Amino acid sequence: MTEHPEPYEDEYRVALLRERLAEDGHAELGVQVERRGNAVLLTGTVPTAVRRDEILGLARTVFPGFAVRAEVAVAGCDAPDHGEELS
Amino acid sequence: MTLLGPDRPAPSRSGRPAGDPGDPAGSRPVVRVAAVGDIHLGEDCAGLLRPAFEALPDCADVLLLAGDLTRHGTVAEARVVAGEIASLGVPVVAVLGNHDHHSDEPEEVSRVLRDAGAHVLEGDSVVLPVAGHKVGVAGVKGFCGGFVGRSAGEFGEPEMKAFVRTTRRSAESLAGALGGLARHGCAARVALTHFSPVPDTLAGEPPEIHPFLGSYLLAEAIDAEGADLAVHGHAHLGTEHGMTAGGVRVRNVAQPVIDHAFALYRLPLDGGPGARTGPAGLVGRYGTH
To answer: With an 8 Å Cβ cutoff, are A84 and B99 in contact?
Structure first.
């Protein structure tokens, strides 16, 4: 993905990471990216653990030298044990 | 409108396994609605949801899929979705989401899902026989634009007008489909969309992006024609419960929100206190009923 220019300021790296998360290979529009001091925090929910690892790898590429902290959950795939009564 | 038949007997009230919400209403007839959206299946996801879906005949009368079923909207990914939903033993009713349009082949994605037995709706409806009653589902993908007081207007540049017009036309087709279900005498009607009709279920999403997550035009259509439940996805960080201005319950069933393979809702079929089988009587965009 070398066609992406380096951002002028680190602040724009947040936008760059979100742009790359939305691109064809990832298509993850539901992951939030925030700067927290000298770290970057990713939050959200993805379908599989493999998808989460891919996203963390991408974040480390876009934010070299930053700590990448992740609160990215994998969505539950079990049947529910109760439902809602809409009476 | 697609009519399914023949009718099936009233579901058994006992011996249901996991997922049965119980029967606190006694022998009152209900439709058991299972729903999920935003499963975002890629080519590497075959079999992810199938084990849970195989429990559906024991706990649900219908499975609703609220869009974003694939990751990039490719035919190969649609085939993975098809493998999860084929021959489940309950009717499957779906709308597509924005991800399902990303590869510019939504018709092909729809065809693959239909070949697997799903009813893929876009401005139309399906009527299901449940326990001797008719249950109608009207569906559109919907689109964005925002909510009352903070919405985009059909004004200015052609691009802006086309953007808002897309949502308005989608809402009008949803209203038409819901109206058709009312005239058909459905005991319960469900509005199925991908984009949200209300801001309630977006709580947790950054407020700045609410205009990209749904539109009040969808809620206005639902309130004008009446429905018993509105189901949507798209807002991964949102919350499950909401309500339109007209009092129709809204549920955000995006998988990251419900954190299960599906959510379950039981709707009465006998015109109980929550039933809304007629239009709201609103004066406005859709006229007076």
So the answer is: no
